[in-house]
Amino acid sequence: IQRDDLNSIEEARGYKRLSEEFNYDHESISKLMSKSRSHISNTLRLLTLPEDVISMLEEGSLTSGQARPLIGLTNATVIAEEIVSKNYSARKVEHLVKFKKNKDQNKNQDANIVKAQENIEKKLGLKVYIVNKKNNSGKVTVVYKDLEQFELISNLLTKH
């Protein structure tokens, strides 16, 4: 685990071995390796990626920073191939994955809810998320970036 030329998958497998064979938890491994607990957890999570994405990490065509946002995605392989072919930065990958997740969420939503969300966003000029559950309860989230935007929302909601 301490070799200089170790790739992230070799590192993850080393941590996994410490965990499985020696019953170390992430906190113990982090102290032993002088790494943060979150680094250990994030590195181990790379092992949950599809085998072909893991192969890309092992051969060096994909970095752990580029691969981490793909964890848990059903289309991780397709996105990984796009990342490699277009040479996206880790930051670009995060934005791409976020965009694709939002697009997928909107596909599964009722067209009326999506339309309402778009209308509210246009009126406010702020990002809005509407979650509608099967029993038609849910929540509306309005995202603001500063105190001025918060005051705009507050004033609109408390007008008489």
What does this structure look like?
The chain is mostly helical. It is built from nine helices and two strands; from the N terminus they run ααααααααββα. It has helices at residues 8-22, 26-33, 37-45, 51-59, 64-67, 76-86, 90-108, 111-124, 147-158, and strands at residues 127-132, 138-143. It is elongated, with a radius of gyration of 21 Å.
Strand content: 5-15%
How does the major sheet shape up? 2 strands, antiparallel
Average pLDDT: 90
With helices defined by DSSP (H or I, 4 residues minimum), what is the helix count?
A: 9
| Rg on CA atoms, Å | 21 Å
Overall SS class: mainly alpha
SSE order, one letter for each helix or strand: HHHHHHHHEEH
Strand order of the largest sheet: 1-2
Salient structural properties:
about 160 residues; mainly alpha
Please specify the SSE layout and strand pairing.
Blueprint: H1 8-22, H2 26-33, H3 37-45, H4 51-59, H5 64-67, H6 76-86, H7 90-108, H8 111-124, E1 127-132, E2 138-143, H9 147-158
Antiparallel strand pairs: 1-2
